[in-house]
UniProtKB/TrEMBL annotation:
PROSITE patterns registered for this protein in UniProt: GLUTAREDOXIN_2 (PS51354)
Protein's name according to its UniProt entry: Glutaredoxin
UniProt KW keywords: Cytoplasm, Oxidoreductase, Redox-active center
Keyword Lipoprotein (UniProt): no
SUPFAM superfamilies according to UniProt: Thioredoxin-like
Domain of life, per lineage: Eukaryota
GO annotations of cellular component type: cytoplasm
InterPro entries tied to this protein: GlrX-like_pln_2 (IPR011905), Glutaredoxin (IPR002109), Thioredoxin-like_sf (IPR036249)
Similarity-based family: Belongs to the glutaredoxin family. CC-type subfamily.
MF annotations from Gene Ontology: thioredoxin-disulfide reductase (NADPH) activity
EC number: 1.8.1.9
Amino acid sequence: MQNYMPNTPWPRHPPITSTNRNNLKTRRGSGLKTVFNGGISGDLKKVVKDNAVIVFAKKGCCMSHVVKRLLQALGANPAVYEVDEKDENQVVDELQMAVNSGEAAVGRLQFPTVFIGGRWFGGPDRVIATHISEELTPLLKQAGALWL
């Protein structure tokens, strides 16, 4: 339990300056978000297979936020992989190879794109359409993303 101390100011941190900027610790890869920048190191096909629901999105994309919030509202906790603009083509090519390896060829993937149960599901339009038609929840249950 936290101790309550009345009339105590909130602790303030020193402003970021050039002298203490190098002491900041970044937390890439922790929690739900991973930011791909500076090249891709890892097998995206394995990442897709290991997670029940994954959203790949451009960094700062509003539609990826919509998809993420919709999936969270249904009870799924999707892994969100934000891709920097400079790495976008490389990630799309790797995802395209993962999608086309065991399925019929699809068009070029666009961000945000969603994988459910290790298989490519689609973009925000398909996620929203299947949610409206009440087909999304059974798919998430089947993939093991929901505990209902």
